[in-house]
Amino acid sequence: MTIGVDIDGVLTDIHAFNMRNAPAFFKRKFDREIVDESPYDIRDMFGCPDSEWLAYWKRYLLKYALAEPARQGAKAFSKKLRNDGHEIIIISKRVFTAKQSIMGKLMRTLVKIWLWRNEIWHNDVIFCAHDIHDIKKTVCLEKNVGILVDDEPENIYAVASVAKVLCFDTTYNRDCEGENIFRIKDFDEAYSFITELV
């Protein structure tokens, strides 16, 4: 079976990264406090405009892309799926990666280096534009993905109409439920679900 796996929020804990770095940055630079501790997007976390969101990621994107470790169990999860004969496609909407520019090329290269360094086994990497609502649904249809592991509510609901979705449990997706949506808390649980579903 072809299994799609997201990076930000699944292979990494982007919410934990933001909670470690964003409060001090937004307080110091924009005198902003957290207005919502559990949103998917940092703009909602601080009620900030795109310009402040961009300033934050200009400061922290390389640190996140290079140094943030994979979640515990991610390496073993990918290895077990490979050993079971599954195809793994990394499907990411990481900012800038779909851009046809020097920054896009840099970010795509950093993702591939990060996957290699963290020993995340995969067959392919698909970079999606982060501002297209149902882009992961389109990719899942084109690549015949049977199961997607994701954390973003928008992706979960869009893909659940065409494939099974393992919703990686976070504070910002606790309301996600419905047909073809299965909540998992870690990679051991994800692997168990996949072996039962196929």
Topology readout:
Elements lengths: L1 E4 L8 H17 L11 H5 L3 H18 L6 H10 L3 E6 L9 H16 L6 E4 L7 H8 L2 E6 L2 H7 L4 E5 L12 E4 L2 H11 L1
Parallel strand pairs: 1-2, 1-4, 2-3, 4-5, 5-6
Helix pairs in contact: 1-3, 4-8
Number of strand elements: 6
Largest sheet features: 6 strands, parallel
Spatial order of the strands forming the largest sheet? 3-2-1-4-5-6
CATH class of the largest domain: Alpha Beta
Query: What is the CA–CA distance across the termini?
Result: 8 Å
Summed up, the domain count is 2
Residue share in helix: 40-55%
- Based on helices, strands and strand pairing, what is the structural class? alpha/beta
**CATH H-level superfamily title of the largest domain:** HAD superfamily/HAD-like
CATH topology of the largest domain: Rossmann fold
Uncertain stretches: none
Structural write-up:
33% of the residues are buried. The protein has 2 domains: 140 residues, HAD superfamily/HAD-like (Rossmann fold, 3-Layer(aba) Sandwich), CATH 3.40.50.1000; 54 residues, no CATH class. A 6-stranded parallel beta sheet has the order 3-2-1-4-5-6, with helices on both faces. The chain is built from 8 helices and 6 strands; from the N terminus they run βααααβαβαβαββα. The protein is globular and about 50 Å long. The protein starts with a strand and ends with a helix. The model has no long low-confidence stretch (mean pLDDT 94). The protein is of the alpha/beta class and 198 residues long.
Write out key terms for the chains shown.
single chain; 8 helices; 15% strand; 2 domains; six-stranded parallel beta sheet; Rossmann fold; 198 residues; 6 strands; alpha/beta
